[in-house]
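User: I'm new to structure prediction. If I give you an amino acid sequence, what do you actually give back? Let's try with this one:
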Amino acid sequence: MTNRRDILKAGLALGAAAALPGAAFAQAAAQSAAGAAPTLFAPKVGRWRSYQIVTTVEILKPEGQVQAWLPVASFSNPDWFKPGENTWQTNAASAKLVRDASSGADMLHLVWAEGEKAPKVELTSKATSRDWAVDLTKPRTPSPLSADERQRNTAATDLIPTGGIVKETSDKIVGTTSGDVEKVRAIFEWIVENTYRNAATRGCGIGDIAAMLKSGDLGGKCADLNALFVGLVRAQGIPARDVYGLRVVPSQFGYKSLGANSDVVTKAQHCRAEVHLSQFGWVPMDPADVRKVVLEEPPGKLALDDPKVVAARKGLFGGWEGNWFAYNTAHDVVLPGHKGPHLPFLMYPQAVTAMGMLDCLDPDSFRYSIRAAEITA
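Assistant: Good question. You get back a string of structure tokens that encode the predicted 3D arrangement of the chain. For your 377 residues, that looks like this:
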């Protein structure tokens, strides 16, 4: 049997190999940073690109039984994202890929033996993705959703209700508008016009949309703003879903706010959205990123009529860039082997000791890091 020291050595060697593509990443990012003004955002169907992310987790203060759950890609859309293999090195007593049957989220579940002084895991995940855009002026005949898919993508969740104030707000937004494209466009534009990105929000937010509407404070980050978009769309009976993932490489359009600007992507989580339109199938949407461009794209605090914002607003209604790694579309996630409350979504590594759940938004509390690279060979 391989001992713990050998396993950790193997993990470190794997990490060094993964850093080699990262050097090319850093060079590309530097070239992007040195360039002129960004090309206006206009995604089209592009070439497939392969990515690798390496997630390293260490438990600094292990007490009692220690467990961890690392998200892996369970999402797949043949138009733009294909998950790949997952491999890992660890000193855990048990490590296996598991699925929360209710939400559909896949994860690597690890359990360490009590008394293990330095719990550690290094997970390497691969996937391929590409830029994707749907021409909403050219209807087609997509495959219809199954009854189960439709129910799942129109249902309420704990933090995304579809009745009450959410339904009332949705009805006011769409008014007498007819047709799913027109209704979704009205909701998308309302999100862009009436919400704002709040830089002080921890992580990506939590997505409690009823609380947002009741308070009248429509600020937050992607898991708030895109959850609000998804909830308002679902309230019209139109299937919609949040897609939780991670920015992995710089934007090819030069937008600093819409890409990873380092190969260290530990805090680069991002939630997108998809809407199923009757004549087009699943269509990408990301009103939250429009508000991110407004706040963060240099020189910052741009007006809605700034050309960079106008381009992003147009491009992110029906398209997005494939510089992103998708995990899942799961809500109300149960962590297998854990008796605690479920999570609103799974986009960060999770860990628990005898002292309770560790703070997934504070990587230093149990030391995790994520590095990304594009695989060119």
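You can read the tokens as a compact description of the fold. Here is one thing that stands out. The first helix runs from residue 4 to 34.
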